[in-house]
Amino acid sequence: CASQQPAVESSSSPAEVPPPAVAPGAVVPGAGTLIPPTVTQPPVTPVYPRTIQDSRASVPVLSLYRQAQDARASGHPDTAEALLERALHIESRNPFVWQALAGARMDLKRPDEAESAAQKSNSLARGNPYIVAGNWRLIAAACQARGDAACATQAQAQADSIAQSLPRTP
Questions:
Q1: What angle do CA 167, 169, 170 make, to 5 degrees?
Q2: Quick check: 32 pLDDT over 70?
Q3: What proportion of the chain, given as a percentage, has pLDDT over 90?
Q4: DSSP labels for the chain?
């Protein structure tokens, strides 16, 4: 029995050689074209709304929010809570309203509910440091009200860390 050697296919075209690297802005010989230099863009820094007025909140939500702020300032956190809950029926994903609701619930001496509302606000904040820092301050206050000093210290440190990264206003 004779052994057969596998046939080696030969190609009629020469092996492809990768083109040499060309520096940006250089002229390629024979091509006559200029390769444009590489332009690197600085990273885009998102612009976050600082207040609910700067956000895209609807007019009814802004009105309810203002009324709730007035009620809290007048010593009526129960009225503020009801107004903010109405605002959440309109815009359930508004982190500013959830944050204000957390504040009203702190005023009502309900720290567990306040912390829960602040956490909900954080989950909707999309990284907005103005909202997140305020929520961590509310969480720290809720922890303190429950007598959990370690939780309060940790939450306040989180708030302080975020607040330090915020731009200073003149």
A1: 135
A2: no
A3: 69
A4: -PPPPPPPP--SSPPP-PPPP--TTPBPTTT--BPPPP-PPPPPPPP--SSGGGTT--HHHHHHHHHHHHHHHTT-HHHHHHHHHHHHHH-TT-HHHHHHHHHHHHHTT-HHHHHHHHHHHHHHSTT-HHHHHHHHHHHHHHHHHHT-HHHHHHHHHHHHHHHHHSPPP-
What tokens does 82 get?
Answer: 């009801």
What six digits make up the tokens of 37?
């230099």
Task: List Cβ neighbours of 170 (8 Å cut-off, separation of 6 or more).
Answer: none
What percent of the chain is modeled with pLDDT above 70? 78
- Residue at token pair 């731009």: 167
Per-chain mean pLDDT for the chain: 87
Rounded distance between C-alpha atoms, residue 44 and residue 47, angstroms: 9
Give pLDDT, residue 21.
Answer: 63
Which two tokens mark 19?
């083109």
Q: Which residue has the tokens 């050689």?
A: 17
Tell me the per-residue pLDDT of 146-157, one tens digit each, with 9 for 90 and over: 999 999 999 999
Q: Which among 117, 111, 112 is positioned nearest to 95, based on CA atoms?
A: 117
